[in-house]
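Practice problem: predict the structure.
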Amino acid sequence: MKQKSVRQLFILFIMTAMLALAACGGLAEQTAQTQPVAQTAGEALVLPTAVSAIEETNFTPTDQVAPAPVQVTEQQVAQAKLDLFAQEQAFVALYEQVNGAVVNVQLSNGEGSGFVIDQEGHIVTNNHVVADGGPIQVNFANGRSVPATLIGTDPDSDVAVIKVDMPANELTVVPLGDSDSLKVGQIVIAIGSPFGLDNTMTTGIVSGLSRTLPGGASASRYQVPDVIQTDAAINPGNSGGPLLDLNGRVIGINTAIESPVRASSGVGFAVPVNVVKAVVPQIINGEQVQHPWLGIAGGTITPAAAEQMGLNSEQRGVVVSTVTAGGPAAQAGLRGGDANTGLGGDVIVGIDGQVVNEFDDLLGYIIQHTTVGQTVTLQILRGGQPQTVQITLGARPASG
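Answer:
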């Protein structure tokens, strides 16, 4: 009897360890540069409550965790086995539901991933996957391979749309979610073709939100704001594939990794799906994609800069260093700083009532929550005194 109890305890320990590893995931050391990860030269699925419970657990305050039980019963061991099985089956069901919509995108000089968004055959991928041009071949999970046509691209958001000519009943469509509702710690799933290994599924969590990809990471001179960070394994060939929530909805496009060796180091990035939902209709309609533009250069104010400007060292916001001549900010009277130091200009501390602590806050709000021609209200400090300035946003000049 004693031997049996020890064995039960060991089984429970192993299953608990497995669950902990699945929920937490290791985060490798962050080094080197951010790289695009293209490989170089319907209805949302309702999952069993077992998996939803994992996600809810991630947001339980630690001070509410109950003390560990001092005795383990056979019933508890059996229940742990059932819970683990239910969670496993839920992931299997999600993969089977979504996998048909995820494709491998092949070009003569490389490959990436993509996903079908409608029954007309439109497929979303990354701009940097298809930017070099040439014939495009799309490979589906069922083994079918068909040519695709490039509909259009937007380098500034690293989004592209291609199209296949196939009957609607032969296409699986993946639903789009809402990236604004994401939380750090939420479980996510990546499906794509890392290193040419089609239909590979990896899991992880949302490791961070509101990251910014530097200009040049997506063949654009502009930064890509509000990017999702994840520790789900993303490797060369994953670019353009979906990052999914536990309901099988796309919440981002896998686009880049932070790694010295072009392989997953636990730091991957995805363009938020709400950017995709704004950009893709313009591409499909043959329009020039327009991004709202303020027309300033600046940066997050530092304690030293704040003191130099006569402000409290704890002051947060964006100090305007230069204002583009003839741009929206210039027309509204926003002021830049000294030509040599970049200091002394207006400090933006809010936009439309939203607090601006750093440059990413300002850029992310403009890109995701405004449109060209919309008037926004900036809360600023000018000479240390609070003021408001209304600015009608223009269209961002093309990259180049």
